[in-house]
Amino acid sequence: MGQYGQTVTLKRRGQEPRETRAFLQPDLKRREALPLTATPLGAVSVQRWRYLGPRDQELAPGDRVAWGGLRLVVQEARAVGWQDETFYQWAVLRPEKEAAE
């Protein structure tokens, strides 16, 4: 992971933000023709992102991932491994909703 992927910032609940290397890609299988949904507060992107990160950087729903100008929230996460060893962390992310002003 250290040689490939992007530098992202992880913000776990109750912890300071920290940088790590991870693969971050849009989930093209879940992309719809119009990736926006109308809500009472305006249009919200429903696009999802896939995250593959280092084995020692566990994620949980509600944690935050930032890359460039993109701000994402962990929707689903799990460790992926074989036998007793974790190989990497996998997660599905969604765009962070902006706070209502």
What does this structure look like?
- The chain has one domain: Thrombin, subunit H, CATH 2.40.10.
- 0% of the residues lie in helices and 55% in strands.
- The strands form two sheets. Strands 1-2-5-8-7-6 form a six-stranded antiparallel barrel. A two-stranded antiparallel sheet has the order 3-4.
- A hairpin with a 2-residue loop joins strand 7 and strand 8.
- The chain is globular, with a radius of gyration of 14 Å.
Task: Give me the secondary-structure topology.
Blueprint: E1 6-11, E2 18-26, E3 36-39, E4 42-45, E5 49-53, E6 64-67, E7 70-82, E8 85-95
* Helical/strand content category: mainly beta
SSE succession? EEEEEEEE
Low-confidence parts: none
State the helical fraction.
under 10%
CATH class: Mainly Beta
* Tally of alpha and pi helices: 0
Number of self-contained structural domains? 1
What is the number of strand segments?
8
Rg: 14 Å
Beta-strand residue fraction: over 45%
Which sequence of strands runs across the widest sheet?
Answer: 1-2-5-8-7-6
The coarse silhouette is globular
Distance between the termini: 38 Å
Mean pLDDT, rounded to whole units?
83
What is the annotated CATH architecture?
Answer: Beta Barrel
Largest sheet, in brief, is: 6 strands, antiparallel, barrel
User: What is the third-level CATH name, the topology?
Assistant: Thrombin, subunit H
Can you give me a brief rundown of this structure?
With 101 residues, the protein is mostly beta strands. Helix content is 0%, strand content 55%. The chain has a single domain (6-95), classed as Thrombin, subunit H (Beta Barrel), CATH 2.40.10.
